[in-house]
Design brief:
This protein is mostly beta strands. The protein has a domain of 166 residues. The protein is built from one helix and 23 strands. The strands form five sheets. Strands 11, 12, 13, 14, 15 and 16 form a six-stranded antiparallel beta sheet that branches. The two termini are 19 Å apart.
Length: 343
């Protein structure tokens, strides 16, 4: 089962969140004939995950779902044209991609707001996490600014970001904190929400941390706790990895009613593109099992496919819905979905 986007767009991501009888799909970078958007969204029914209804503007293009502040818009407008030296890589070390530029040259191209997971806060409302990055001209020059929250109403055209009184984004985690933006999208105990972050990256190998917070206190940084290897405590600097040096990270985490265990699923370039990795655990903090790999080549995934996720809103038992991003040409691509049956 595949869902192909409109031919004028390419976009990745595809986090989902059930709000009432609807499911919100939030995408990451979205390429349109009029330019790049860093987040768009659409809604579907539980019974029909492939039939998406998205908000569009007067020209038929999708809307930016996580809206920019006026300061962020000004930043992006001021960085449309970066100095030519920012794109010269010859002779530059991997950790110094701008060595051909004079000192203090600004090679930033834009601010990006990339979506994470979320939790329903009522019958017709929810909250989603997002990561704010400054994107440079060099490949994979992603500088995290922090993690924030946005409020969503069922069927809404755009989200409403949590802001401070001066209009600046209210960040739960800062630039020097792990990127806790992916979490336990569906679980039996809705009282708590669990968040995961990848740290200590060495090429494709990463460690994984986990935190938790009461679902009613997502906006209160002091309410978060982190697993230190033996228990939960509030000091982030005492958090201990629940997985060490695994390729890509943990990915999406759900409660699976068939296995009666927590189930994670993820695929990206680090797992091999077409290789979707599953792990299980009796508790959100683990211990987590070794990897079980699924080859997605039969449903069109290639070695450069990435962003594989589970979508428990459309089945959390023996039959699972998963999605992945398949590049097609240049920056364009498709988000494809498939059914996976557990044996």
């Amino acid at each position: 089962m595949l869902w192909t986007e409109a031919p004028s767009f390419g976009r990745d991501g595809g986090h989902t969140l059930r709000i009432g009888d609807q499911v919100l799909w939030i995408f990451g970078d979205t390429f349109t004939p009029s330019g790049l958007l860093s987040s768009t969204a659409a809604w579907s029914r539980l019974s029909d995950p492939q039939n998406l209804i998205e908000s569009i503007d007067g020209t038929g293009l999708p809307l930016q779902f996580l809206p920019y502040t006026s300061v962020e818009i000004e930043f992006n407008n001021d960085h449309v044209d970066v100095p030519d030296c920012c794109s010269l890589r010859a002779g530059c070390a991997a950790d110094q991609p701008y060595c051909n530029c004079p000192a203090n040259t600004d090679c930033a191209e834009r601010i990006a707001l990339w979506p994470g997971d979320g939790v329903a806060t009522g019958d017709d409302s929810g909250r989603v996490y997002y990561e704010k990055f400054v994107i440079g001209a060099a490949p994979y020059d992603f500088r995290r600014v922090g993690v924030g929250l946005a409020d969503v109403q069922a069927g809404a055209r755009t989200a409403v970001r949590e802001l401070d009184s001066d209009g600046s984004p209210r960040l739960i985690f800062g630039a020097n904190d792990p990127g806790f933006a992916r979490g336990l999208a569906v679980q039996e105990d809705l009282r708590r929400f669990y968040l995961y972050a990848s740290v200590n990256r060495h090429q494709c190998a990463v460690d994984v941390l986990v935190g938790r917070v009461e679902a009613t206190a997502l906006t209160q940084r002091s309410s978060y706790e982190f697993w230190d290897g033996s228990g939960w405590q509030p000091a982030l600097d005492r958090a201990a990895p629940i997985l060490e040096q695994i390729p890509g990270g943990l990915g999406s985490v759900t409660w699976n009613t068939y296995l009666e265990r927590y189930l994670s699923g993820w695929s990206d370039l680090c797992t091999g593109g077409r290789t979707f990795v599953l792990r299980t655990a009796a508790r959100p903090e683990g211990p987590w099992s070794g990897p079980l790999t699924v080859d997605l080549g039969s449903v069109g995934a290639s070695r450069d496919a990435y962003y594989g996720l589970l979508h428990p809103e459309f089945g959390s038992g023996r039959s699972l819905l998963l999605s992945f991003f398949q590049p097609v040409e240049d920056v364009y691509g498709q988000i494809r979905v498939a059914r996976l049956r557990l044996d």
